[in-house]
Design goal:
Strands 1-2-3-4-5-6-7-8 form an eight-stranded parallel β-barrel, surrounded by eight helices. It has one domain: TIM Barrel, CATH 3.20.20. It contains ten helices and eight strands. The chain is α/β, with parallel strands linked by helices. The protein binds SN-glycerol-1-phosphate. It comes from Methanosphaera cuniculi. InterPro entries: GGGP/HepGP_synthase_sf, GGGP_HepGP_synthase, GGGP_synth, IGPS_HisA/HisF.
């Protein structure tokens, strides 16, 4: 399966909802249970990653997911430990507004030989941290883009496109109190040809619909499922709003 083709084909029909699973937050068996509920609720793929990832835990989780569900499993690495040979694809990402070159090209170079060896599909992606930025902003030494400065995000997204990236991820940070302002999405969608992913603080159907109406192609949610006792109903609420 080519995951980027799957995304582009799906986009001809509807926008995507992707369920994020942090392998450090539950056992592999529990991750499979969440993913099964998400699949039943028509999520379009499973994203696996976190800011702190134990490689063994990641491998066990991804392997269990691949054995038990039919959706693409995509890696969202928080560091070089975020690569697993069991996944279908890897978001090969650069944190464009980090102040530390390690997160822009350093980790990527250190991981590249492993990526080559396992032969996993890579999807080149610019990763942009918008205020508040959360744990990932702190870990990634980001200079988060102020919520009133959507033009700065647009400039970075344009640069990502000129650098050959095909995807941009506008990130408010996991568990953010508020998701990114719709204006950010509108501008980036209007003035680039990138696939626009949004995440961080999206909790309700209304949040998801706002992001979709602004032009987001892929809406990621993670925390909402960790906080809910009924993953199926919560994800169904989101996918109904997005599809
Ligand atoms: C985190 O954008 C994702 O990288 C998801 O955020 O956990 O707030 O849904 P939430």
């Amino acid at each position: 399966m080519n995951v980027e083709n799957y995304i582009n084909e799906t986009l001809k029909d509807h926008k995507l909802h992707i369920t994020l699973i942090d392998p450090d937050e539950q056992t592999p068996a529990e991750a499979v249970e969440i993913a099964k509920q998400a699949q039943k609720a028509k999520t379009d793929a499973i994203l696996v990653g976190g800011s702190i990832t134990d490689q063994e835990e990641l491998d066990l989780t991804v392997k269990a997911l691949k054995e038990n569900i039919d959706l693409p499993v995509i890696l969202f690495p928080g560091n070089i430990s975020g690569v697993s040979k069991y996944a279908d694809a890897l978001l090969f990402m650069s944190m464009l507004n980090s102040t530390n070159p390690y997160w822009i090209t350093g980790a990527q170079a250190l991981a590249a030989p492993t990526v080559k060896k396992i032969g996993i599909e890579t999807i080149p992606m610019g990763y942009l941290i918008i205020e508040p930025g959360g744990t990932v902003g702190w870990v990634g030494d980001a200079k988060p883009i102020p919520r009133k400065k959507s033009d700065l995000a647009l400039a970075y997204a344009m640069a990502a496109e000129y650098l050959g990236m095909r995807v941009v991820y506008l990130e408010a940070g996991s568990g953010a109190e508020k998701h990114i302002p719709p204006e950010f999405v509108m501008k980036v969608k209007k003035l680039t040809n990138l696939i626009v992913i949004v995440g961080g603080g999206i909790r309700t159907a209304e949040d998801a619909k706002q992001m979709k109406d602004a032009g987001a192609d892929i809406i990621i949610t993670g925390t909402v499922v960790e906080e809910s006792s009924d993953a199926y109903t919560k994800i169904k609420e989101l996918t109904d709003a997005i599809h």
